[in-house]
Write a structure and sequence with these properties.
Layout (H helix, E strand, L loop, with lengths): L5 H13 L1 H8 L10 E5 L5 E5 L2 E7 L8 E2 L6 E2 L4 E9 L2 E8 L2 H20 L9
Antiparallel strand pairs: 1-2, 2-3, 3-6, 4-5, 6-7
Helix pairs in contact: 1-2
The structure holds zinc ion.
Zinc ion binds next to strand 7.
Protein name: Elongation factor G-binding protein C-terminal treble-clef zinc-finger domain-containing protein
Amino acid sequence: MNDPRPQEHSVRDLLRELFPETHRELFGPHEGDALPTLGLYPVADGRLALVHGDQLAEFTPLDPKGKNALHCDLCHYTRSRSEAALYRVVVAARRSRYVTLCTATEACQGRAGRKGLETLAGRIFPLELPYTE
Ligand SMILES: [Zn+2]
């Protein structure tokens, strides 16, 4: 029996529909590529993709306002305007979360560790996506 798990398939199909570009950048055009389990990945246009298992959320950078220092929500360092950015994450049809993150995400994730990433993922996921019947 070669029974594909339908649940998993529909989630990936949905992700592909919602974030076609990001999906392609992260997973490639081929079905069945290994999924990264947990991490933030830089994608096009300064965006970041948070991946946790088969869940994916897009972080879109916003134009900075004001001159205050920023507090990174992942590694909890205080950063200057040039070292961090405010990102918008669409978590439901009409709801967004705003997250401040270091722009040098690799070093930031290194400081935060897996536990920090899990906490961040816990704030974002699960997305309330517009499931279709
Ligand atoms: Zn950080």
